[in-house]
What we know:
Blueprint: H1 4-13, H2 20-27, E1 33-39, E2 50-55, E3 61-62, H3 67-79, E4 84-87, E5 102-103, H4 106-113, E6 122-124, H5 128-132, H6 135-140, H7 146-153, E7 157-158, E8 162-168, E9 171-177, E10 184-185, E11 202-203, H8 208-212, E12 221-224, E13 240-243, E14 271-275, E15 278-282, E16 300-306, E17 312-313
Parallel strand pairs: 1-16, 2-4, 4-6, 6-7, 9-12, 12-13, 13-15
Antiparallel strand pairs: 1-17, 2-16, 3-5, 8-9, 10-11, 14-15
Amino acid sequence: MISRRDLLKMTGIAGAGTTALSGYALAEVFREKVTVYNLTPPNWTPGLKLKLAVLADLHVCEPWMSVERLQGIVEQTNSLGADAILLLGDYVVGHRLGKYSQKVSNGAWATALAKLSASLGVHAVLGNHDWWESREVQDRRAGPTPAGLALQAVGISVYENNAVRLEKDGKPFWLAGLGDQWAFKRRDDDYDESVAGGKVAFDGVDDLPGTLRQITDDAPLLLMAHEPDIFPVVPERVSLTISGHTHGGQVRILGYAPIVPSRFGSRYAYGHIVENGRHLVVSGGLGCSSLPIRFGSPPEIVMIELGGAEEGQV
């Protein structure tokens, strides 16, 4: 994917080229893996076997997540044989490093994602960076976003507080996508401190009650939500919530992530989380935000196999 010479040059750019540890943290940016979760969530139809491939937080840019690298990720994802592919947002870059980090056009990365293929389709939600990318969108505090339009232009369904009923082997289930919870940045003097966990610096376009009202029968319900912060109010009716956004903390030391972009801190930083019988899977994502460094939190494609019992990694 990248030459040793380029890697050393980028290590120097990050100001970390003099230590093996920091060099490893930069190199880990390019070492994606496949993480598998095998579970049977509540309210699941007996005999319904469903494989979901999840791609989150791509943050496409040169050279950290180039179109060429994205094409390789698309090929690897297709090879996993998922029934459906879920895209959890933050397709655009969230950092700048001068001439060494170049934006990739929305059309280019969307065209690469258009090669994704699954029998039950490719389904997407937007992330906060997809909303923040456009000053015009922020000023009018309304969509559509350039990222969302790019996905739709290549035939990928974008969900914003809506749901679709699908079937696998004659057994139905619902797939819903929540609007982004951090869509609009607030001014410093307009923070809301009424929410547990501290100041809220963002307004969302999420409407969980409105999304749930679209469910018309008792078939299992899967919820895509870019940020996992919605999870405490997700009802038992939802069999599984699937999120990204946190990057697993992006830097984890002995399993602890000192910085997690969530009002709940590390509570929903990563992995399969069960609270009061409700299930959440948080992907560590594939790209980087703020700095092109990962340590102890390698980029990952997530496979969720529903109807099993064990978890592991491949």
